[in-house]
């Protein structure tokens, strides 16, 4: 890399620091001793030692992939060492609570693309409990300094270099004692880079602020007070730039770096020769480990909820889709599921009248064409009847899949039926046979086959009933001798009405999982998760803030969906609308908690999508949504009530169809089940994030 003329000044830095032979935690901003860190079997830091005195600039140099970012992430407590000690501003990492004293700029931008510069600074300022007036003042100053005058543009619409400058502004915002900056000048032009360095020099001028900076522009670290050179997980040199140049008789730091690399390759590893006093645990014990990471701060929660609400406002299209999606799913569901089949073909051979459609027929007692009267009743089912002259041809249409069944009506049908009805106990075999319609059906589609069976029973019963009436006979005589009394007679026998108490919670549950996973995905991948954690927000606050905002967004979804289900699609609702809404709302909360658990447990979106799909099918199959639990395998029947949507489905069915109130166990148990499962997934999320180690 050609040396930048503005940066190749070799004068002693304004605030040169003499390195103390003995290390004490008060005078050093960062002390690392005997640090080991590995990712699996790959060792990144090996017996790493570093000392950063307070009040200066420390430039950390090293080839790409040598572990600089890993080291910085260990310094801010985002990653844990396998062994060794780190003290930052006198406190032991990871127990230290000095977020407000540290400004961190990660290598990735780590900001929220939907916030503007002003909103970004306001958010991070509020997180670290700055007053709004102070944030405003700092915003004016930093946007001027970093040439970020277009403050109302969303970050995702800014250039990479501009975004890096916003990221730098966030690190500077609260005037921290220690700035940890991972490649802050990447993508920044030469003039601005020098301005930024001038600002670093200004900051460290009075000796209270320390800056640790990694960079690939090696020569810019000539302005640092100390330079550490990393290679293969060790610090191979740590000195002032001037002494490094002198000692290695080099004209640039790049040359020093090359020479040291060659030396290290020859196994002449050079480490800092300063003797370091062993670090005791005098500071470590002061921090209450148990409290860290579990507490909720009002300022954090307010800032996070504000930020999430802004995200929702700016992404109103996503929110509108979230509102419409359940309704679309419900509409498709209601349009597709539960209706009786119509307009399917059946083949008819009427040997009494020949192959013609005679279903437009008026029934008489002495009717010589009762077969037409039967077909007339059948035609009310809106089938497509095709007429054939021969039984063999009609059966062939079934074999070829052109028809679901063939009906063959005998030539003496009217006479045989009339005699069977009027003198049934003397009917001969020939009369019984003549009055029998032969049905040949395709049973490969069992639902259609079953439907046809029921349909033909009912058709025949209605036909006989009407025939008996026309002959002045007692109509009950020919009816199937069963008298039905119905308890909830308002219930539509439509299958959709049976499944809707399961379908509604299932739709809310599934969409809530997906929306939560999406929000967490944005948080983790597009936004500043790293950054806000470093700013002191803990993951519990993060999780709760998302749950709160999503729980609010869930309300209009439920209202919208209920309007469609009960007003537009006229699903039966005999019980309390409020209880129904609460139950569906709790199903949504369960979805949010489960989605949160999945987001905590799995980093990959694909894994989350797969588990969500699996969960959806398990719920559909096991919770009595599409098939009664009474018909399941005994083992599944035993465990089904413990699945999250089984009891709520029953409970909703009892509310919607039986008009039962909340205080019946069959109703409130569904609410309790949703509450308990939500709590379980919330706790699991907290446990997972608590035990996750990087
Ligand atoms: N989470 C992880 N899992 C496995 N390996 C990792 C992980 N993070 C980093 N590494 C590996 O550790 C090594 C050091 O990575 P690190 O990001 O600390 O390097 P770096 O010096 O900052 O590089 P650069 O200058 O290119 O940013 C690299 O080889 C990287 O692939």
TrEMBL record:
Keyword terms of this UniProt record: ATP-binding, Membrane, Nucleotide-binding, Transmembrane, Transmembrane helix
Cell location: Membrane
Predominant location: membrane
Keyword rRNA processing in record: no
Record carries keyword ATP-binding: yes
Domain ABC transporter: 30-257
InterPro entries reported in the protein's UniProt record: AAA+_ATPase (IPR003593), ABC2_TM (IPR013525), ABC2_TM_bact-type (IPR047817), ABC_transporter-like_ATP-bd (IPR003439), ABC_transporter-like_CS (IPR017871), P-loop_NTPase (IPR027417)
Domain ABC transmembrane type-2 per the UniProt entry, residue ranges: 449-692
Gene Ontology molecular function: ABC-type transporter activity; ATP binding; ATP hydrolysis activity
GO cellular component: membrane
Transmembrane segments: 503-522, 543-569, 575-594, 606-629, 667-689
Topology term for the membrane: Multi-pass membrane protein
PROSITE patterns documented for this protein: ABC_TM2, ABC_TRANSPORTER_1, ABC_TRANSPORTER_2
Xref: PANTHER family: ABC TRANSPORTER G FAMILY MEMBER 20 ISOFORM X1, ATP-BINDING CASSETTE, SUB-FAMILY H, MEMBER 1
Protein name as annotated: Uncharacterized protein
Annotated organism of origin: Photinus pyralis
